[in-house]
Structure formats: C-alpha cells, structure tokens
Amino acid sequence: MSASLIPTNVAFRDLAGPIDDTVKESHMTIARKLPCKPVSYDSVQNIVYTKQFATDQAIISLRLLNLSTDLPVIYHWLPWEYTRHLKKEAHVTHLQEIYSRIAGSGTAQSFMLLLNNATLAQADLYQAAADDISLQYTASQGDYKLQLLIKPERLLAGPQWSYALETMMEFLFSFREVKRLVMLLDEHELLNSKIGKRGFIFHKKITTRQKNSCLYLCSREQFYQSQA
Fold this sequence. Notes:
By secondary structure, the protein is an alpha+beta fold. It has one domain (8-227): Aminopeptidase, CATH 3.40.630. The protein contains 6 helices and 8 strands, in the order H-E-E-H-H-H-E-E-E-H-E-E-E-H. Strands 1-2-3-4-5-6-8-7 form an 8-stranded mixed β-sheet, with helices on both faces. Strand 1 and strand 2 form a beta hairpin. The radius of gyration is 17 Å and the shape is globular. The chain starts with 7 loop residues before the first helix and ends with a helix. The model is unreliable at 1-32 (pLDDT under 50).
C-alpha cells in the first residue's frame, strides 16, 4: 500500500532553486519545494502543476492528496486483492490512518492527478533509500520511487496514463534533488510497453511467491532525451 505528502500554500514557499532550462514553462505552472516534506492532508489542496496536451485537448493538473475527498475515490481504484478483506468504511478508515501517519514521515508524498478537472490518477513518491525498493537494487542519492494508481484499468489502453506519467515526471525532474525515478510494474501490465517512451530503461526482473515484477530506472537526462 502506498501513501504520502506536501501542501501548496505552506510547503511550496521555499524555493528549491531555479527550474531546469529544459522544462517547457509555457506548458505548465510550477510550484517549488523540496519533495517529501512533512505536511497535512486535512485541508483543501490547490493545483500545484499543470500540463496541456493539445492533441487531445487534455489538461493534466496535479495537487496534493485531500483525506476527506480523495480516500473514497482511491478505495474504488484499488485492486480487488487489497479491498476484499474489509468493508468499504473500514478500509477507508485504514487508508486514512496510513496516509496520516506517512504525512509526518518526511520520506514520501502523495498527489492526485486530474484530467480536465476530473480525478484521473493518484501518484505516490518515495525516497528510494527509505523504501523497500532499496532491497531490490542499489539506491543512489536522488533516487525516488514513483507509483501510479489510475482509474479504471481500461484507461491504460488509451493516452491518459501516459499523460499522467509524463506530467508527473516533468514536475518531479524540475527539482534538482530528483536525479532518477524508479518504477516497479507487474510483469503482465500493459504499462511495461509504454514507459520506455518516457525514458525508463528495464533494470531487472524481480520474482516473489506472489508475482513477477519488472524494475525500471529513468534519469533526468533520459527523460528529456525521450521528449526531444
């Protein structure tokens, strides 16, 4: 299970430095702050980042998680194996406990992505060295694990997931502290064929008793080269 952090009005006041010159500022609005700072998810969150995709007249917006409005939505997006053991009310309460606890950790952040102002996906960001992913490869300073949960799975076949991923990557790589992104996908997922177009490179296969997964890495340079 994933969860995370950063509020717009307070946590983004301290600038993390100038935006990278390769980021297309004409396509987005950027709020600046070091990733993974302790914050609260109790208040209404403002949009911190937007990107427009003219081909499909799509605008992807990014904001922090809001406990009161987003948890019931996330519950309906979770795979059945996560929700089958608890009733909805109990599971939402459990999610609230998880996200509230992580909010003060300083090692993770959680966002909601909107497509033309309608909820599209939820994104979790983790400092790789503080996450279990570090048991699967040698994590370097500046490595962050990215995890996306998108509604319903049929959208994976369309461009929406790619839009969400590209927007999230563009936002994260605008921070100097983020050197490389790490993603772990189930081996069978359609997404494995898509993330290479955003600069991710297959690193290794991970086999457990539950499933087979693929570990991918993408540096800032690889991402920008993929967008050229």
